[in-house]
Each structure stands twice: as structure tokens, then as C-alpha cells.
């Protein structure tokens, strides 16, 4: 494993979660904006260390910015329907066609940017982490997800569960700063109907959007030599 890959994995699976947890335990609701900013910077590191200093990198940034904007717009459009959003699906599609780093940064920024409308709070870093991790893992599984629609559906459904569970962790910790198993189970149980909606919406949007958006992203990759 190369040094760049090690740094990427450390940023995503170690540094980012630690930042979120440290922000909760040491700052509570007082510095969530600062934690979101730090997490945004960390989300950029895996992406930028993969740069080759060419024109294609600038094009890749533009495409990722467009995908993030599309994700944010989708959350706005479907705001009247609680918990039924295309964000996760767009993050997964971005990761599949543009890579793990692109998926992570799109997921993280989709949360922090859209929350300027929906409301920033101590939950924002957890949303950033949840969508970022979903995107990063989708990039690692990209080949299998492209080849099998069944696996894509399963990953979409599991992503709904993962997002809900991570937010349930926040709910549990936020009560008194400790992780109580009974409270966590209660949070999961209470959130079960919403988790089902997350799962269903992810699957529906993946089935609707993967082919049209994926074909356009693939065309752009081929045209500009973005890999």
C-alpha cells in the first residue's frame, strides 16, 4: 500500500471520526461550526493528494462541484417529503464514477452546504461523516456496484441503515455525553420508520438516476481523460 493510500484511509476512517467525536465531547454545541470547517478541510485531503497537477484535475473539481450542487438541490426540492432525499444516491453515483475521494468530499460538502438552508447544528459533522463514509466505501466497491444492479440496490438500502445508525449515535451521545447501549437501542427503534424511508428512497433514486447520470459522467471521463 502506498503512502498516499495510507493517508487517505487514515483521514477517512480515523481522523474524520475523531474530529467529530472530539467536537462533541470537548465542545458540545458551542463549536459545531468550527468542527464542520475542520472536517471540510480533512475531507479535501484525500482528494487533493491524488492530484497529478494537470488540466484534468481542474475538470474533475468542476464535475465534483456540479455533483455536490445537484445533491444539495435535490435535498431542497424534496424538502417537503421528510427523509425522502436523493443525496445518498447522488453521493454513491459520484463515488462510483469519479472515485472514493470524490464520493467522500461530495458527501461531506452536501451536508454542510445544504444545512445553510436546513439549519446548521451539532448534527452537521455527523451528517458530513455519514454521507462521506457512504461515498468513500461506494468508490471502493465501484466495479462491483456497476456490474450488479442487485448489489447496487443492497448497498443503497444498507446506506440508509448506516446513515440512520450514525445519526442515532449522535442522538445517544448528545443526551449526556456518554454512550448508553439501552438509549442507543431505543433510538434505533424509534427511528426505524425513518430508516425504512431512507432505505427505500436510496434504492428508488439509485434506480432512477444511476444510468442517466452515470452515462454522462462516464462520457465526461472518456472525453477529458479523467480517471
From TrEMBL:
<feature type="transmembrane region" description="Helical">
    <location>
        <begin position="124"/>
        <end position="143"/>
    </location>
</feature>
<feature type="transmembrane region" description="Helical">
    <location>
        <begin position="90"/>
        <end position="118"/>
    </location>
</feature>
<dbReference type="InterPro" id="IPR009825">
    <property type="entry name" value="ECF_substrate-spec-like"/>
</dbReference>
<feature type="transmembrane region" description="Helical">
    <location>
        <begin position="150"/>
        <end position="175"/>
    </location>
</feature>
<feature type="transmembrane region" description="Helical">
    <location>
        <begin position="32"/>
        <end position="49"/>
    </location>
</feature>
<feature type="transmembrane region" description="Helical">
    <location>
        <begin position="181"/>
        <end position="209"/>
    </location>
</feature>
<keyword id="KW-0472">Membrane</keyword>
<feature type="transmembrane region" description="Helical">
    <location>
        <begin position="6"/>
        <end position="27"/>
    </location>
</feature>
<keyword id="KW-1133">Transmembrane helix</keyword>
<protein>
    <submittedName>
        <fullName>ECF transporter S component</fullName>
    </submittedName>
</protein>
<feature type="transmembrane region" description="Helical">
    <location>
        <begin position="61"/>
        <end position="78"/>
    </location>
</feature>
<dbReference type="Pfam" id="PF07155">
    <property type="entry name" value="ECF-ribofla_trS"/>
</dbReference>
<keyword id="KW-0812">Transmembrane</keyword>
Amino acid at each position: 500500500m502506498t503512502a498516499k493510500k495510507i493517508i487517505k484511509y487514515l483521514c477517512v476512517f480515523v481522523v474524520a471520526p475523531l474530529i467529530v467525536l472530539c467536537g462533541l465531547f470537548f465542545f458540545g454545541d458551542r463549536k459545531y461550526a468550527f468542527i464542520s470547517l475542520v472536517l471540510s478541510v480533512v475531507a479535501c485531503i484525500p482528494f487533493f493528494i491524488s492530484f497529478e497537477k494537470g488540466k484534468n484535475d481542474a475538470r474533475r473539481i468542476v464535475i465534483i462541484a456540479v455533483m455536490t450542487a445537484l445533491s444539495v438541490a435535490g435535498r431542497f426540492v424534496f424538502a417537503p417529503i421528510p427523509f425522502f432525499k436523493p443525496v445518498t444516491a447522488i453521493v454513491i453515483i459520484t463515488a462510483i464514477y469519479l472515485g472514493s475521494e470524490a464520493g467522500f468530499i461530495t458527501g461531506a460538502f452536501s451536508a454542510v452546504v445544504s444545512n445553510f438552508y436546513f439549519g446548521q447544528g451539532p448534527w452537521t459533522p455527523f451528517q458530513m461523516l455519514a454521507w462521506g463514509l457512504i461515498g468513500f466505501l461506494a468508490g471502493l466497491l465501484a466495479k462491483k456496484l456497476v456490474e450488479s444492479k442487485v448489489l447496487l440496490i443492497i448497498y443503497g438500502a444498507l446506506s440508509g441503515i448506516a446513515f440512520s445508525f450514525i445519526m442515532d449515535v449522535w442522538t445517544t451521545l448528545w443526551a449526556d455525553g456518554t454512550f448508553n447501549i439501552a438509549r442507543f437501542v431505543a433510538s434505533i427503534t424509534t427511528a426505524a420508520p425513518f430508516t425504512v424511508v431512507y432505505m427505500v428512497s436510496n434504492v428508488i433514486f439509485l434506480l432512477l438516476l444511476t444510468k442517466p447520470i452515470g452515462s454522462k459522467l462516464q462520457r465526461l471521463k472518456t472525453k477529458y481523460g479523467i480517471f
